Amino acid sequence: MLLVLVETDARVMWYCRIDGEVWASHEYDTGTQDLDGHTAKQVICTIAACQGRFYFEGCTPGVIGVLEFCPAPSFRCIAILDAFSGTKGFQKMFMVESKQELYMVSLKYV
Predict the structure, then answer these.
(1) Rounded to whole angstroms, what are the CA distances from 60 to 18, 29, 40, 78, 92?
(2) How would DSSP label each residue in 20-57?
């Protein structure tokens, strides 16, 4: 088992194995995003654990990031099947695990 803490104001995460006593830090780079004409490094804000992996809002729309420890942190991106592509509006996304399955809940304000 593994405990992961993600700093949402920096690109740093801390992790510790449950049977261990030492926390390790890891600086990560999941890409950049365009914010009103300038680019900024992307940080992990929403994260969920499922079947030994950690999933987070991805680098681009329609993609989620995957964090695995084998044994060091390893990142990759996967496409979301049947990604929601409705009208534009403020949207909040949550990922939740239920019965060993990962689900994405998307709240949209119109």
Answers:
(1) 32, 14, 13, 10, 15
(2) ----EEEE----EEEETTEEEE-----EEEETTEEEEE
Rounded distance between C-alpha atoms, residue 54 and residue 16, angstroms? 14
Taking only the tens place, the pLDDT of each residue in 46-79 is 889 999 999 988 667 778 889 999 888 999 988 8
User: Which residues does residue 34 pair with via DSSP β-bridges, in sequence order?
Assistant: 39
Q: What's the structural domain count of the chain? A: 1
Burial environment of residue 26 by CB neighbours within 10 A (0 to 12, 13 to 18, 19 or more):
middle
Please state, in angstroms and as integers, the Cα–Cα distance from residue 29 to each residue in 36, 42, 45, 51, 76, following that order: 21, 7, 13, 23, 11
Average pLDDT, the chain: 83
**Using an 8 Å Cβ cutoff, are 45 and 8 in contact?**
yes
